[in-house]
């Protein structure tokens, strides 16, 4: 993906991209729209309307043949699908969650931002590989030095987009997404400058339904504490954001060389008229 590709590119839904992929397979033939609609599990109308939009954009001819510009756009969509899937796999996202995560990212995130996320992930992998020998030498100095190594030697100065997930660990060691996961934007950022290094999260409304009477409820995070060297510290919430210092986080390389960070947190939420008790979870972020 590059800026030139993305500048005037249509931003279709995942399903609409699938329409184009199916059109490429079936080609120009009688009843192709109906075939594509049947394959994608939709009625004839949505497919026909989207193809008319593509004709207006210059991607398709009136006979539903790809133009040069349309073929180029389809190639770009394929690359986006490939790169986002690879990105999520490097983040060790469970395979069953990848389709929904892809849908969220591809439909709701600007393509240039997606490109930046993918590029940062690749660059982080390259820097991690280059620093492998030095990192292994420092591992013997303990976890604190390992974190300092990451912040000082690998992490560049500036602001970096990261994905986050918050999991609750059950008694049988199984993990599942915590309710607190709904309480934050799933794209956060790392800020690393002369004033310090921290993970910055953006708070958002939590929506749920009462198990008692089915009433729809909403609420928000009321507090978050992070663990650092065995002690809990409360994060300050200001203007809908909170910060966790990177010195409280634990860093490691994933199976494909990507860098991930984790920190143990304790959160409390207000949902509806109820104040949810504090629960312990693991916040994971990745680049």
Quick summary of this structure?
Residues 124-143 have a biased composition (Basic and acidic residues). With 287 residues, this protein is an alpha+beta fold. It has nine helices and 13 strands.
Q: Can you tell me about this structure?
A:
α2 packs across α3 and α5 (68-90) packs across α7 (111-130). Strands 1, 2, 3, 4, 5, 6, 7, 8, 9, 10, 11, 12 and 13 form a 13-stranded antiparallel beta sheet that branches. The chain starts with a helix and ends with a strand. The protein has helices spanning 3-6, 14-26, 32-40, 44-57, 68-90, 98-108, 111-130, 132-139, 143-154; strands at 158-169, 175-177, 187-193, 196-202, 206-209, 216-228, 231-234, 237-238, 241-245, 250-253, 259-271, 274-275, 279-286. It is elongated, with a radius of gyration of 22 Å. The protein has two domains: 3-102, Arc Repressor Mutant, subunit A, CATH 1.10.10; 111-286, Sandwich (Immunoglobulin-like). The protein has nine helices and 13 strands. By secondary structure, it is an alpha+beta fold. It comes from Blautia difficilis. This is MarR family transcriptional regulator. Residues 123-143 are annotated as: Disordered. Residues 124-143 have a biased composition (Basic and acidic residues).
Task: Present the secondary structure layout.
Layout: H1 3-6, H2 14-26, H3 32-40, H4 44-57, H5 68-90, H6 98-108, H7 111-130, H8 132-139, H9 143-154, E1 158-169, E2 175-177, E3 187-193, E4 196-202, E5 206-209, E6 216-228, E7 231-234, E8 237-238, E9 241-245, E10 250-253, E11 259-271, E12 274-275, E13 279-286
Antiparallel strand pairs: 1-2, 1-3, 1-13, 3-4, 4-9, 5-6, 6-7, 6-11, 8-9, 10-11, 11-12, 11-13
Biased composition (Basic and acidic residues): 124-143
Organism: Blautia difficilis
Protein name: MarR family transcriptional regulator
């Amino acid at each position: 993906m590059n800026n030139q590709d993305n500048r005037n590119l249509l931003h279709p839904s995942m399903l609409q991209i699938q329409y184009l992929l199916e059109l490429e397979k079936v080609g120009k033939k009688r009843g192709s729209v109906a075939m594509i609609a049947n394959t994608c599990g939709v009625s004839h109308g949505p497919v026909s309307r989207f193809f008319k939009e593509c004709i207006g954009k210059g991607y398709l001819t009136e006979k539903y043949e790809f133009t040069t510009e349309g073929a180029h756009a389809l190639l770009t969509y394929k690359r986006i699908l490939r790169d986002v899937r690879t990105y999520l796999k490097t983040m060790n996202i469970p395979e069953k969650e990848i389709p929904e995560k892809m849908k969220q990212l591809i439909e709701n995130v600007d393509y240039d931002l997606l490109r930046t996320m993918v590029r940062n992930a690749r660059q982080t992998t390259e820097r991690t590989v280059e620093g492998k020998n030095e990192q292994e030498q420092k591992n013997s100095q303990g976890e604190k030095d390992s974190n300092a190594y990451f912040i000082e030697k690998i992490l560049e100065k500036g602001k970096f987009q990261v994905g986050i997930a918050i999991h609750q660990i059950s008694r049988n060691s199984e993990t599942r997404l915590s309710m607190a996961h709904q309480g934050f934007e799933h794209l956060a950022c790392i800020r690393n400058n002369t004033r310090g290094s921290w993970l910055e999260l953006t708070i958002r409304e939590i929506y749920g339904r009462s198990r008692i009477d089915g009433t729809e409820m909403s609420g928000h995070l009321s507090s978050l504490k992070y663990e650092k060297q065995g002690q809990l510290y409360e994060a300050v919430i200001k203007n809908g954001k909170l910060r966790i210092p990177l010195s409280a986080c634990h860093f490691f390389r994933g199976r494909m060389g990507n860098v991930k960070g984790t920190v143990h947190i304790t959160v409390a939420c207000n949902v509806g008229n109820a104040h949810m008790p504090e629960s312990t979870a693991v916040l994971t972020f990745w680049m």
